[in-house]
Specification:
The chain is an alpha/beta fold. The protein is built from 17 helices and 14 strands. The strands form three sheets. The chain has a six-stranded parallel beta sheet, with helices on both faces. The chain has a six-stranded mixed beta sheet with strand order 9-14-13-12-10-11, with helices on one face.
């Protein structure tokens, strides 16, 4: 049952209620359970907290034994960004693959099954989907996490995803408001800036968020991006113009507003997490996401005390903090009701693979003859962005090994990538696997060399397919999820 420690005043409880902290380990630490007893209402989970569905279910049960209405949040987009399957790769293709298929019913089905799996493990808030219109193909952090570069396509699939996820009793958190697609900087590292006029913002960035709101999204996540046309001084997460005037006022959104991770350098490196959290709540945010990097009791204490001190100093209206805390509790009530109303649904375990197969785009100058002998898979591997992480395996080697036992593989990067890959491959047929070739000149150069020496090389692009297709066979998967690799391997092996 819900327990609140006696002697904890309302202001302090409200300050704890608006925090969404993380922690380390696969069981809840004592400090986290204590904070739940004092008023903490949400917990954020990351890949480090998950070993198996059974372990995750036990963890969420442990949290609910302390507070039965706790919001358990996770960053489970499917595709490249997975926490449920962080060590194996996702059973679901990501947004870009779904956008490439452009079947909104399929997107709804994928999101429903993903939501079913989350709910079965006790997770009731998903920091997804990404509603960003990936208008900048050089975007270093969105890319295949977006449904695409077409505004209307992104809008209709965002709505379908929200509908599917929430039909399983899991609240959707549509992100990254007001749109992170036209950035050339990763907000994990610095503060991105989008210099567009208000008409572009209205017609491009905001359209998918309007669709998500119309579909009933229960939460919206703010972006740490500066849009001078909207607010020349503060990033959206800290801007009353963005959160209160635009999102609440103009767009009429009445659900929970969650910040992106406050320890990201776009905020931590400019305002600091304490000051940033106070400004975010004052601007209209209701929940402070922190814990991807800072995941300890000291962080919770610092942010709680910063909010309480700001109220007592007159820098943050007490009624604004109380309103934020009530919105957190309202979402908790919705998730409880949604879970109770959700009937036992039949699992659709193959929907992700079906989607991944449909998303493939193959290009060949001549009819392709599937391989019968095990190849050498040369993975030309860029540095992963923080949102994706480097824990999750990707590529086609494991799936090709399953279909063609004896398949070998190696990882290559930099100026010597092609030379070392050719030496390692020997006489074997080469399958070159790339990720966003268009963003990495060294990768383009390596492919040039590989194809010059071995024209029969097969190329698998697992990022955005922006570069010109080449190779004996070019396969664009529109994402690097495990099922995307399996779908590509099936084509290569002809099964």
């Amino acid at each position: 049952m819900t327990t609140i420690a006696s002697g904890t005043d309302t202001l302090t409880r409200d300050a704890l209620t608006v925090l969404q902290p993380g922690f380390t380990g696969t069981t809840a630490p004592d400090w986290l359970l204590r904070r739940l007893g004092e008023g903490l209402a949400s917990v954020g989970l990351f890949g480090r907290n998950i070993a198996s569905p059974e372990q995750l279910a036990a963890l969420t049960a442990q949290l609910r034994a302390e507070r039965d209405d706790v919001l358990v949040a996770i960053d489970e987009e499917g595709g490249d960004v997975t926490r449920l399957e962080v060590r194996t790769g996702s059973s679901f293709p990501g947004n870009n693959a779904l956008g490439a298929v452009d079947d909104v019913e399929l997107t709804r089905q994928v999101a429903t099954e993903l939501g079913r799996r989350l709910a079965a493990c006790g997770v009731n808030l998903n920091w997804a989907p990404s509603a960003d219109v990936n208008s900048n193909p050089s975007n270093p952090v969105i890319g295949v996490r977006s449904f695409g570069a077409d505004t209307d396509l992104v809008a209709r699939h965002t709505a379908a995803y929200v509908t599917g996820l929430q039909s399983a009793g899991v609240a959707a958190c549509t992100k990254h408001f007001p749109g992170h697609g036209d950035t050339a900087v990763d907000s994990h590292h610095a503060l991105p800036r989008i210099d567009v006029d208000t008409s572009v913002l209205q017609n491009r960035e905001l359209t998918p968020f309007r669709a998500a709101i119309a579909a009933g999204t229960r939460a919206v996540m703010s972006a740490h991006i500066l849009i001078p046309a909207l607010d020349p001084d503060r990033p959206a997460t800290l801007s009353p113009h963005a959160l209160t005037e635009l999102l609440r006022g103009e767009l009429g959104y009445d659900g929970l507003i969650v910040t992106d991770g406050m320890e990201m350098q776009a905020i931590a490196g400019t305002y600091g997490i304490e000051r940033g959290s106070v400004l975010a709540v004052a601007a209209g945010a209701d929940a402070i996401c922190v814990g991807g990097g800072l995941a300890d009791d000291e962080t919770v204490r610092r942010l709680r005390d910063a909010l309480v001190s700001a109220v007592r100093a007159g820098e943050l209206p007490e009624e604004r903090l109380a309103d934020a805390a009530e919105r957190v509790r309202a979402l908790a009530r919705w998730t409880a009701a949604a879970a109770a109303a959700d009937t036992e649904r039949t699992p659709d375990t193959e929907v992700g693979l079906r989607a991944a197969r449909r998303a493939l785009r193959t290009t060949a100058a001549e009819p392709f003859t599937p391989l019968t002998e095990p190849p050498y898979v040369a993975a030309l591997t860029p540095v992963a962005n923080i949102a994706v992480g480097d824990e999750t395996p990707w590529g086609v080697a494991a799936e090709l090994f399953r279909l063609l036992p004896g398949t070998e593989t190696g990882t290559f990067a930099g100026e010597d990538a092609a030379r070392t890959a050719l030496a390692a491959a020997g006489s074997r047929r080469i399958v070159a696997v790339v990720r966003d070739e268009h963003r990495h000149p060294w990768m383009t150069s390596a492919l040039d060399t590989l194809l010059s020496a071995r024209p029969d090389t097969i190329v698998v692009e697992m990022g955005l397919p922006q570069a010109t297709p080449r190779g004996a066979l070019h396969i664009a998967t529109h994402g690097a999820a495990r099922v995307c690799g399996r779908a590509a391997a099936e084509v290569i092996a002809g099964v």
